[in-house]
What does this fold into?
Amino acid sequence: MRELAVQALSSVERGYDLLAPKFDHTPFRTPDVVLDATAAALRPLGPFGQALDVCCGTGASMRILRPLCQGRITGVDFSAGMLAQAGRAHPDAEWVQADVRALPFADGFDLAVSFGALGHFLPAERPALFAGVHRALRPGGLFAFPIGAPPPIASGMYWALLGFDLAMRVRNAVWRPPFVMYYGTCPLHAVRDDLTAAGFAVTTVPLTALGLREDGSPRCRLVLARRT
It folds into this structure.
């Protein structure tokens, strides 16, 4: 708890640098079940050539990208600590430190993925992020990422996430540097609009392996944004 408190009172970059050595043993790492469901949805659309993991962290997605891709796999993140862990675990991939709101790539990738990172960007920052991914992809390239359905308002999870977001807003109002991490700022309809504005053709597929809500709708969808 002490370590998490120190990380939460740091910047996003510094916080992840501190968390990096233990990140793969925390609940913050993308669960394997989410990675496997994503791989199953992408497999019929491949094989792909070169791939980019946006906000790659410690490189958890390498396990599913290797079988899907025939070319180079690159991870990009702005935390040097996370990239150091990724490089040790996956020395055969390429790791680039950069701010993903200004990605340093152009027309080089057939597939881009991202897992659990959208909450680190304010809504006003998403257009730059998506424009950079669009620029990094070759024409016809695919940007894929899972996005969860909002929990029902009567559920405990809804109020827990709302409470977390409110606590983060208070923290960022009174403490510097800010730590941007919100769960309620990236609903599917807003993300779809931003992707479309960036030049993507957007569809979604349900990740039914991750379960259904009480109304029968999927708990999670895979967004498929193709550079047109």
Observations:
- The first strand starts at residue 51 and ends at 54.
- DSSP finds eight helices and seven strands in the chain.
- The chain has a mean pLDDT of 94.
- Strands lie at 51-54, 73-77, 94-97, 109-113, 137-148, 200-206, 220-227.
